[in-house]
Amino acid sequence: MLGKLEEAEKLFLSALQEAKEGFGDRDPHVASAYNNLAELYRVEKAFDKAEPMYLEAIIILEESFGQEDVRVAAALHNLGQFYLMQRKLEQARGVYEIKRRVLGEAHPDYADTMYHLGTVLSLQGKYKDSEALIRDSIRILEDGGQGESMICTKRMRQLAQIYITTDRIEEAESVLRKILHIMELAKKCLSEVIPPVRIIHFWSSQIFIVFPDLAALCPYSFFSYVVTHILQGWNSLETVIAAERLALTLQSLGNLKEAQELLKRCLDARRALLPKNHIQIAANLLHLARVKMLDSSKLNKSNVAELDLAKDLLSKSISVARGNLVRSVREKGNKQSYGESVTTVRSRQSALIILLQSLDALSLLEMKRLELEDSKDPYNSEAESALRGCISAYKEFVNEKSLSDAPGVKAEYLLCLKHLVDLLSDNRTTSKDRSNNAALQELKDEIKRVEVELSKKGGRRS
Fold first, then answer.
1. Minimal CA–CA distance to 280: which of 291, 270, 288?
2. Is residue 363 one of the residues assigned to a domain?
3. Domain with 235 in it
4. Which spans in 274-380 are helix H?
5. Do 287 and 414 reside in the same domain of the chain?
6. With contact defined as beta carbons under 8 Å apart, do 230 and 238 qualify?
7. 356 located within any domain
8. What is the four-CA torsion angle of 225, 231, 235, 241, rounded to 10 degrees?
9. Cβ-based burial of 396 (10 A; exposed 0-12, middle 13-18, buried ≥19)
10. What is the pLDDT of residues 111-143, one digit of tens each?
11. How does pLDDT run across 157-169, given as a tens digit for each residue?
12. Rounded to an integer, what distance in angstroms lies between the CA atom of residue 169 and that of residue 246?
């Protein structure tokens, strides 16, 4: 990979020199060469090299075509994405504001620009302004007959997230229901959804970059793959994910029956579409177990069957998540350090987070069982065992740098530590547990250490 990037840089630098010699230093061809080189540096994360290239391309295009030209807007978009990638939000916002002015409301890309600007404002915490922009970008798409497109549903998801963040859960539910309805009905032929010219362009420029494992497939097989996994209702993971988002929102609203029904359907769909040990299945099992635990209306002294079902789901989630971690770490040991994709690293982090959350949920389940049994001693050895398993799992895998540096992983570990301290510190626990002050103090010291590390990284748990 490194060798290919170095070769690409030489080619782009050569193209830039040739453009200057053939057209002059201030020609649009030179601007294009600068932009291509900037994009390469962005991919390499050589940000200090990329930014001046983007800026020089914009200056040349403004000199050649004027500040209001769409080619200038396209170059501004690239610069905006570059700033957004680095979370330089104020710079990104300023660039998108200029692009919006350059395009004007009549331009077909105006809605796209409003969406990107709304995304930046959302990241800045300016949710009211962000909501207005994203809602307008959705309206423009709907007015143009693209209300059921994947682009529009993506923007709806962003709008729903703003509603959730601002505690407007009912409004989020409405948007998420609309998304799921669109996804369930998405059964049109590929040629009706994406014009043939765009298919050819997308195929030539993107498909085998995004899906490298499909390069060996014949055209018909690839076409079948797209239709089956992207455009066929519940045969699509996009639909499953949309349903899961709705289910989790319904859970927060207390609509546990419908949430559980949706999560069961998601689990069935995932088992049909994915390998049996895929990490998404572990997450689905965890979500379903939590809903069963929350559905306290079914739980009483004479009927704890729902807790048993939830425990079985959690045990399966733990098994799948641990299996993913062991396999991923082993495979990493067989590869060179630069050979891992961002997706692989994030998948490993997700697996550990799900493992920690499942063990923590198992501890809460055991405590709930104790409550139903009206035990006079709230201490529960199985609850403690689950939490200690959570801590052991963290220490087992945290030597992997991609895991030790992840704030989300640390936050879940911190929660397990706190739950264990609460369990052992309860005044009504056994005298043996209360007397173990040294072990308890060690846990408290560990909590302080992790909290300091999280504060340095800006990590937090709501």
1. 270
2. yes
3. 168-192+220-271
4. 279-294, 305-333, 342-372
5. yes
6. yes
7. yes
8. 110
9. middle
10. 887 888 888 889 889 899 899 889 988 988 898
11. 999 999 999 999 9
12. 10
